[in-house]
Structure formats: structure tokens, C-alpha cells
Amino acid sequence: MYYPLGLPRRLRVPGGASHGQVKAIVCNRDRVLFAVLTEKSIWIWFSRPCVPVVVHQRSEESISTIGTNQMLEWRHDSSMIVVGTNKNRLIFYSIVVDESRREVYEQRDPPNPTLKRESAELYSCESIPPLMFSTAFEREVSGGVTGLVCLRDELMVATGSGHIQRLCWDGSINYSYCVDLRRVPFCDDQLVMKALPLDAPGVHVVDLEYSPLVGGFAVVLSDGRAAFLTASTLKFDPNAVQGIWARELEDATCAAINHKYRLLAYGRANSQGVVYLVDEATGGLEVSHRMILSDRDYGGSPGPVGFMKWTPDGTVLGMSWVGGGLSLWSVFGSLLTVSLRWDYSQDPLSHAITITNMEWGAEGYELWCVQEHEGGKEACWGKSTFMDNEDKKEEKEEEEVTTGTSVLQFSFIKSALTVNPCMSRLVRVLLQGSDCLYLNTTEGLMGTSSSIPHDALSLYFDDDEEGAFEDRANTQFNVAANKQWIVVPIPYKYTSSNWPVRYTCVDEAGQLVGVAGRNGVTHYSLRLRRWHLFGNESQERDFVVTGGLLWWRSSWLVLGAYNIPANTDELRLYPRDHKLDNSFLTTVPQPAQVLLLNIYGDQLIVLTADCHITVYNLQLSQSDSGGSPGSVVVSRVQEVDISGLTVHPACVVSVLLTSLRTESWQANSGQHSLLPAQSVIINISGKVLMIQRDQQQPLGSPNNGKLFHSAQMTPIVLASGCEALWCSSCAVSHKPHLSHALWLHCGAHGTRAWLPLFPNSSDKSHTFMARRIMLPFTPSIYPLAVMFEEGILLGAETDTSLLACDAASHHQPLMVVERTSQVYLHHLLRQLLRRNLGYHAWEVANTCRELPYFPHALELLLHQVLEEEASSKDPLPDCLLPRVVEFIREFPVYLQTVVQCARKTELALWHYLFSAAGSPKQLFIRALEVAQLDTAASYLIILQNLESASVSRSLATRLLDATLEAGKWDLSKDLIRFLRSIDPTDLDSPKPSIPSCGSTKVGFTHATPPVSPACVDEDLSMILPNTQMLLRRIPSVLVILPQVLLSLV
């Protein structure tokens, strides 16, 4: 979802004795301003451009009397800031805009004409407001300040005396709503009749987070326990407050709350993280998943978890450790990246980033981190964002001072699915950054070869005079194998006044891109390489995109917007072939703010802030002059109220129309139109619900396009803990099992495929089987797109490289984003065979025979089952390998699959493999009979290690005669070299074949390595006292025993 990019930059915040160490970084509500808090000063910075606006440095008298700064919190309207000190004080500061000045930084060109700026990118269009920062008042807090959180128009202050005080921003305390932890009843869930208050003395809150959607506070206590404070009233009456313990958690260090998914994350002292969800039935905290570094990610322990922070969209959690290291986790526990796994020249912890505090910037494109140094001079990482206007002498003296902390900025790009989930219907990987887009190439998709020109890359590059892309159209799976990105820079003319970029989209053909920032919208044609911007900038500033962005029929850009002058919410449709202007605009008024959009064919589904889902039908009206589209007729089909399914409309992650149903059904082979919509699938805080179309009327009867006729509908729960879902919208498919499946990614619990099971027409008996089945598996990549027809998952990952110039200065490595892909067919076949659904597995595999990687998928299936079962230390009650072998035997590539799997497997596992697949000698003979000479040659490598040299020579000679008759001269040359390599002295040393026809040897696959005879004697003499006497009576045993062992090798 989120991927770091480039090198981190260091923010120039003066430290030393005059300012002290950096303690925290906190953004305001809209993340335009962020405050950098040091021990003795407060810096207010502007996000873009990243420049300081105002700085307030406290006097030495104030510091000695009130104490140094420790924590900071913004007011919701950014008019005030409160700072907590280490001497039980709260300092309130007021922030107002100076109306007498226009802006802080005035851009003036020098009088020298040669130094004047000619490019528009050298000018900043953002108006940086001049702020006046002043101390308002102070207030003493008994017990000390341990936590601050803003609750609506009030301030919740956690104290060291075990209280949570409720203050107004004028400094007054609302005593009636202050919470005393000693009077709060704590229990495991809300159904327990008996709840006990805290009995341990001195226990207080050390970390405090609030979420209105979860309905309470996530608190970490000083004794390591964690709890969730909730109340039955919105005012959070202390008499109604109840504490819910986080079970099996005694070493909590920090907390973070996810609003959209309603999750509570806690860091632990054992370097792990645990995420809880509120059980709707009992009200208790249930473990959703755990965030644990595997040995592959990092073998040691980075120490306790120091800080956790969710991204603004709630899809990724940033977590740091006290010992050093930064990691990113998806909302349900998939590890996206960890700095301990980056390319370091030495131990990662030796140069790890020790982060004590972090804050995400606007839309998550930047991560501001407070880095703690062990001491000494700071490392100069990258170019400083801001440099003081001091002379060189003063700057050199300042650098020699050891500050101990610095501020780093990491840049990120993220998937468009994080904010625009309607992109899941496309087979595209679209990543959006603060000023550019990353798009995977479009050539190579199956079923689109007729629509792609011969030189497919000519859409994005100059004319191919040399014919470099001549063979690209013949490569069906280049879209999955190609590692290249199409990087589309967003024009500075748009981002300079409309940063940050909020929504991006791409059409089905991958040739049109849409971008929506703070105001307005723009779109780009990859074929024409031209951006379309508003000619009238006032029209661009008059609306804000609030509910998604998508292309309809690659001709109309559809978006949900808020009209600022009219103060209304509406749907807007802009034509592609006309300039961006309101004269060509089609609008549809909406009753509330548009939150989500999605489309299925010509049906548009819209979610608004009043918890209503509305389905519209889109239809083109042709102009009178010609065939070009004139306008769009938008007709309302149906409206559905989902307020009973969610606590808040912001908890709805995605909504989509689909042709899927709980029962499987196939379309007619002659049908070429899109299948009719059958259900609505909604993802609410990770819980996937399906509302099916009722069957009161036949599908073909006129029903005015309505999907639902019942006044009350009961949704079906398909899955929980879902981060993203994908569903195909193809009209006709030759692989109905893959294209009619629903794909879900559930974080640490892996990926799930809701696969249809079509009944066997020849089987007339009652099987009592479900029409669909949920198949889980764990991919090795994080999926961002699903190629349904090709059976491939597409994704991205972060790769790092340590530059030579940075190795000496201990810089962090350069981070780049690479495309990844993975085949998933073998996972589905394995899960079906495990459930004894061999016929359905054969049906799925039979439709995929034409895929170029199909033999490789069968090899992966055999190899994974073999590795798992042959190396298992526990007894296997039901072995899967015989079923897998019998399944692969149904396909012509059986012999090839077995030998390729054996050559890529350890020699110790061959016995288990060929005990199920058959003798390799018999498989070799079978390959000769069916004229698979290359496959038979591969079996010679196996037979050389299992059979005697004479047998290998005989079989190789037999194969050589067959290759000479077939005229395969290259293979014949290889066989002659193989025969010459056989040592004649080895012809008389037979090797036992597998399975052996002589004496039977009983043993395990992985036996203990044999020991020397002397060691055998010593071991037996220690266990059996009579052994040494027996060896003395028969001394010849000591001579015979090594010969016997040698003959058995």
C-alpha cells in the first residue's frame, strides 16, 4: 500500500543548548501546518513548501520555573496550541493570522536580468500565511502531565495522579466530567456483571488516544496493562465510563487507534505489536492479529516498541522500536517494509534509524520522524530542506554542538486503492505520489491483443524506428513479467496551487489518467501525451472532489464533488474530448456529501454521507450533428439505506456492484454483453457483506432496472478482516472459475478466493455441496491487482541499494519501488485437493491448460506439497502428495513435471517423491515410449544418482539410439558427452535402486548421519555393559564392520 521512495531528507532544526532536543512533531487537523517541539522552543512549519513560519523560544527563567517542553497538542481549528512540561504545567499559546501582512515569504527577482527566473516551477503559488504566536496563559496540573488528546472543543489531560482531567481551551476545568481511574470499573467485556476498579497504587495513564468512531479511549497504564475506556453517553459522563481490559497484555508501551477500521493497536516490550477490535456481541476486546517480525525479516530483537502512528487514510501503521528500526504494516497485519531488512553494509542495528516520534504529512506522502542520535556530530543525510542565513563561521560552530536529535522526512508513494477503491475493478497497478504517478504497462493482456497495436510501447514512447518493440505484441504475459513503470509527472501548474493530490484513476485500457487535488481536476492522455487543465481557474477553485474518481467508457470522467459557491454536493461528469469547462459539464445533485463511487457497466453506484447507496443508470445521448457524444443522461434506479449496517458512513471502505451470487451460475456461451448486476458488496471496517438481488421476478422480466424489491433485506457476511477486494467485470470468459471469483486480501491471514463450484452435469446424485467455497492461501507478495484470466497477482515492493559514496558516511540506502508478480493457480488447486474436490480442481486446471506457465504451476504444486510433507516433524494423518501425483497424472506434462520437481529438490526427498510418483526408471521408459526425449534425458540425471553406472550407461545408450532416429543432433551430442563422462571403474560398483528389489531397508527419510565404528563401540559400551566383552570375543567384527558399511553406501 505505502512504499518509501528515494533518500530521506533532514530538516534543519537548530538544537544544542539554546533549543534542546526535539521531543515531538504534531500536525494540525488539515496537515498544512506542523509543529516541531523542542525542549526550549516551538517551531511552526508550512508543509509545502517546507519552510518555517514562526518560532517561539522560551526564556531561561521560564524553563527553570515551569520546566522543559515534553508534549504538544493542536486545537481543532488550529487557533491554539497547548504544551505540557516536565514540571506539572500546561502552557497555552494562541495562533492568529497577521492581517497587516500579505505573506511571509515574498518572491522577488534580482535586478540582474540574467538571474531572473523564467520557469514557473521556480515560483511558489502557495500563499504562506503570516502567523502571530503568543503565550495565552498557563495552568498547573497536579500529578504531572502524562498525556494530551483533543476531544471536540475540549482537552483531555492524563495526569500522574491517576486522573483524566477535562479542560476547556480557556483553561477552565470541567470538574463534572473529570475521570478518576480508581473509580472506573474494569472488566474483560461489557456483559460481565462484576467489574473491579484499579487496586494497585500509583497506576496512571502514560499514553492516551481517542476515536469517536470506536467510541472511547485507548489507554496504556504505567504498570504495562492496556485498556479501552468507553461510555454509554456521547458526553463521556464519568459515572458511565467503563474500562475494558486488553486480554493477555501486560507489557504495553504505546497505543494508536484506527478510526475507519475501528481497531486499537498496542506496542509491546517484546518488540511485537498486537491489534484488537471491539466485539459487537460482548463489547470486549478481541485480538485481530499480531505484528511479529519473522526470522527472514530480522533475526534478532530490535527492542520494545517505541512509537506507533496510523496514516491519514487508516490503511497503514508505522511502528518503530527503541533499539532502532522503522516498519510499515497494513491495516490487518501484512508487513509492507522494514528498515532492518534494507541493504546495509553491516548489521542493520548498527546504522538503524532510532525514531522516538513520528507524524504523517498530508495524504501520507511524507513521514516526519524524530531521530535520536547516540552522540557526536550529526550525519548529513541528503540536502537540508531549510538552511539558516548565518555566516559560515557561526554555522560551523553550530554543527560542532552535539544535539542528540534530528528531524527526518521520508517520501512515500501509495496505491490508489487506499483512497479510491473503485480501481480494484481494473487489471492495473496505479501508485500515486505527491507530484507523479506510477502505472504498469498495458501491453500483454490476454484477450486484448487485437486492440493493442503491433508496437504496443509506441503508446508511451517515441516512434520505434529500430523495431525494438517488434515482438512485444506476441508476449502474452509481459504485463506481469515487465518490471518497468510508466512514470507520469503531474504538471506543476496544477500541483502548485492544488497540492496535495487526493484521488487518481486510470481507464480500462490504461491510456487515460485522472487526477484530483485540493481543488478541481485534471486528466492526461498517454497516447497524446497531453494534459487537460481548466482554462478558467475560477471554475477549478469552485469545487472539491470528495468521493472518488473514475472513467466511464473511457470517454467521461465521473467524480463526486462539493460545489463551494452553491454549497451543494453533486456528481459531475466531464467529457474527455472537450476541454475542461463547465459549459460541457453534466451534474446530478446529491442529498449529502459523496463518499464513494464505483461503476459496473453503465450502472453507477454512489455512497453518500447519509448512509444511502444510490444506483444510477448512465446513457449517452448522441448529438444532432454527428456521432460524437453530446451529453450523458443520468437516471436514478434505486436507493438503499445501509444505516443499520454501520455505525458511521466513514467506516465504509468500499462498495461495488457485481454479477456474483452465493450460488454459482454460468452465462450462455453466445452472450457477449455484460452480465446483469446481481448483488452489492460492501466492506465495512473490514467486514465484507453481500446484499443479493431477490429472485421474486425472473431475470429477463422488466423491473425498471431495480435490484431489490423487498423492503427489508438481510446481508450475508462473506469475510472479516478484509483490506481490499477484487471482482472481475468481463462479459464472456473461458475460465469461469477464475473470472467469477471474488478475491479478498486479509492482511496477516493471507488472501482468500471465493470460488464458484459448478455442479457435475454427469453426476445425478445428491451431493449436498455448496455452490461456492472460500479458499485461503498466503501469497509471497502484497497484491495490488488481480489478473483473473491470466491467474497472476500483481504488486509492488521496496528495494534498496547502498550507494558507494554513502557507505563511508553511513547514509541510509536509496529506496526504489519495483513491480512484483506471483502465480496463484497452484494455491487454488492445492486447496481444492485438500478438501477432496478433485473434480473441481481438474475443471479449473483444464480451463488453464493454454496458459504458458501451466506446467510451472503444476511443478509448484508438487514441489510445495513435497517439501512440506517430507520435512514435517509431526505425523501426517492425511498425506496430500498421493492425491497431487494422481491429479498431475491426468495431464500430458506429468513426466516433465515430476522430473523438473526432482531436479530442484534435495536428494534426501527423492525417496518420498518417487514412492508416490513411481520408479524413475519406469518413468524414463515411459518418456521414451511417448517420444518425450528431452524429458527422458532429464531423468538420466536422476538415474545417475540412484542406479548403478552400468544401468545408467544402458539407459543412456537406449536414449541415444532414439535421439539419432528422431534427428535431434544437439541432444545426441549431449548424450555422447554424458556416456564419455562415465568412469569405467564405476561399472562394477552397483547402487541400490529406489525402490529396491532386493533386501528391504526400514528407516526414516532424514536419518541420523552414521558415526564411526569406534564411536559406535563407545556409545554401546556406555549403554550396554556386555558390549565391550562381546567385541573382545569376536575381534573380526571390527574389521568386517567398515567393509559392510562401505558396501551399503
UniProtKB/TrEMBL annotation:
One of its GO terms (cellular component) is Golgi membrane. GO terms for biological process: intracellular protein transport; retrograde transport, endosome to Golgi. Coiled coil: none annotated. Its main location: membrane. Pfam families: Beta-prop_RIC1_2nd, RIC1. The keyword Membrane applies. Keywords: Membrane. It is found in: Membrane. Residues 826-986 form the RIC1 C-terminal alpha solenoid region domain. It comes from the Eukaryota. The keyword Membrane applies. This is Protein RIC1 homolog.
